[in-house]
Amino acid sequence: MAVGSFVFHTVATRVAMLADVIPIAVFIYGYLLLALCRFLHLPPVVAAAIVVAFAAGAQALSALAPPRLLNGSVGYLPALAALIAVALAARERSTRHNLGLAALVFASSLAFRTSDMTLCPEFPLGTHFIWHILNAVVLYVLLRTALIARVV
């Protein structure tokens, strides 16, 4: 994911954008599948059906939302909602806590991404870099949570 983001932020072409967004989508959908199976103990077929429905809904929302709405952050709202839903439904207390933490950090990250263009006139460095740093924290917490909850 980092390589795709670096390339996109460096050359900003259509191919570079795909190198950025495809790995992100694969992670979101893959992690949701893992979370539904590992944390909610859903059968893989049921979990896969939920992920397909989620992906379709998320893509529809992104396609229908005006591009400038929330500075282009609307497409990440379904991921935040899914993270919160799984956190609330997780069986293990530590898993709920870790996923809740990831959701809180991700919500903060989205706030920095969303406010970037508005804040740039006052803070020329912008806040987009904070989006990337906080997302790295989110990925760490999510992967650590998945490893801790690994089926033995």
Key attributes of the depicted protein:
152 residues, mainly alpha, single chain, 6 helices
What does this structure look like?
- This protein is mostly helical and 152 residues long.
- The protein has six helices and no strands.
- Helix 2 packs parallel to helix 4.
- The mean pLDDT is 89.
Concise summary:
This protein is an all-alpha fold and 152 residues long. The chain is built from six helices and no strands.
Beta-strand residue fraction: under 5%
Biggest β-sheet strands, sense, barrel = none
Radius of gyration: 16 Å
Number of strands: 0
Percentage of residues assigned to helices: over 70%
Order of helices and strands: HHHHHH
pLDDT under 50 segments (min length 5)? Answer: none
* Tally of separate helices: 6
What would the principal axes of the Cα set say about the shape?
globular
Assembly type of the shown chains?
A: single chain
Mean pLDDT: 89
Distance between the termini: 28 Å
Structural class: mainly alpha
Secondary-structure blueprint of this entry?
Layout: H1 2-11, H2 14-38, H3 44-64, H4 77-89, H5 93-119, H6 128-148
